[in-house]
Amino acid sequence: MQVCADGDQCSDTLPFSIGYYSSQLGIKYSSSGDQNAWSDTHKWWVIAAAISVGNRLGGVTNKDAISAFRNAYGIHPNKPFVMEMGSCGPRDGRGGCGDPAVGAYTWGSRDVEFSVTAPFYPVGPNRPATIAAIMSIHQIVHEFGHAFAASQTSYTDNPYAEIALQKDLLTSSGYQVSDYPGMWTPNSSTAYYESFANTFLGWVYGEFANDRYGTKRLEFMEDGMPRWLNR
Ligand SMILES: [Zn+2]
């Protein structure tokens, strides 16, 4: 892509960099020991996910994507959103990416850890590179759903508590359909916390099944997000 400024100053470099977007969003990448654990591609996936989330949040709070993202997660210069790449084992005997560790685990409202051994969706015989990229971005959006719920747990009417009361939403129904398993359900569990993170993903992209369960998921988010965000 060629970028031109002031009519004649053109370059083949994109005007915005990983560093630019990450600092605007307030996202930091950390890894225990391995400096190369985060590839540029992985960082761009995080940025793509965060901008998608910010755009949708901003539609509710009437802010630009960057401000909406920072406000929702309580990001400040001394409180970044930390994306870790590590072993993703349990901490104090709980949580983590499972055994063997795959994917990611959200530790709090500004802390997601990815399993360094298998952080994202690999390319495979039934999963071309573009699909693997999209599914990996969806996985990150799903984790942002967990992180958003974590930011709300000091309130009694929080996303987890409310979806736990919605029997129809603690199912595998209502998610957008896809030829690629897991595209709209990065975690197929019907536990309330995974149901919320999956429903958050559908809400961010405006993609639910075209049935009464899909409508219920959309209505749940359209009822909840303005209340949760504007308090
Ligand atoms: Zn999850």
Task: Tag the structure with descriptive keywords.
single chain, 231 residues, four-stranded mixed β-sheet, 7 helices, binds zinc ion
Describe this entry's structure for a reader.
Helix content is 43%, strand content 12%. With 231 residues, the chain is of the alpha/beta class. The mean pLDDT is 94. The protein has helices at residues 18-25, 40-61, 65-73, 129-151, 159-163, 192-205, 212-229; strands at 3-5, 9-11, 27-31, 81-86, 104-108, 111-115. It has one domain (19-229). The longest helix is centred in the middle third of the chain and has 23 residues, at 129-151. Zinc ion is lined by residues 142, 146, 187, 194, 197.
Briefly characterize the structure.
With 231 residues, this protein is of the alpha/beta class.
